[in-house]
Design a protein that fits this description.
By secondary structure, this protein is of the alpha/beta class. 43% of the residues lie in helices and 13% in strands. A five-stranded parallel beta sheet has the order 2-1-3-4-5, with helices on both faces.
């Protein structure tokens, strides 16, 4: 079984001192003697726009039997000095619909992971950086939930899974403890 996981820096495992992230922990949790391959296709800063530009080629080369999308937090952010989201909510929905259509060429076993909450106080202190707002993240998660419901796909809600004071490294990216929580939550759905 090949599990392809596409997403952003949280998928990649940014800021994990153990360098595994939730995807690496998921990979490590499967017994060696089982024929399960887990491919991490998380790229820091990616939005659904970026993912649309690379998904088809990567999925065609992997031919995954399971596809996981963990994307959206960067779509919801406000680039520094701007009052609008990086990717509008309407465009985000269109992008996700296109990604899901492309994914269904390979498999019907598709999972959508929602975005985690952030510590707004911490990320607001980042100099010359984008701003992340939990209210905006929730709107994008609602789009993901709606698409999952409409298309009879599994949605994994992780918005309130992490403690923003104990489980985040920098206000946005999880620490090792946070990534472990994410891995356990995702694995309970994927099995």
């Amino acid at each position: 079984m090949e599990i392809g996981i596409w997403g952003d820096s949280i998928t990649y495992g940014e800021s994990d001192t153990e360098a595994l992230g939730w995807v690496g922990r998921l990979r490590k949790s499967y017994p060696i003697d089982e024929d399960i391959q887990v491919y991490n296709r998380g790229i820091c800063g990616n939005t659904t726009e970026d993912l649309l530009g690379r998904f088809k080629v990567e999925a065609d080369s992997l031919e995954p039997s399971t596809i996981v999308f963990a994307i959206g937090i960067n779509d919801s952010k406000h680039p520094f000095g701007e009052q609008t989201n990086k990717v509008s909510l309407e465009k985000f929905k269109q992008n996700m619909q296109a990604l899901l259509e492309q994914a269904k060429i390979h498999t019907q076993k598709i999972f959508i992971i929602g975005a985690t909450q952030v510590d707004e106080e911490i990320v607001a202190q980042w100099k010359d950086s984008s701003r992340f707002y939990n209210g905006e993240i929730e709107k994008y998660n609602e789009v993901l939930k709606e698409l999952a419901r409409e298309q009879n796909l599994k949605y994994v809600d992780v918005f309130t899974l992490l403690d923003i004071k104990a489980d985040l490294h920098d206000g946005l990216h999880p620490n090792a403890q946070g990534y472990e929580k994410l891995a356990q939550q995702v694995k309970s759905f994927i099995k």
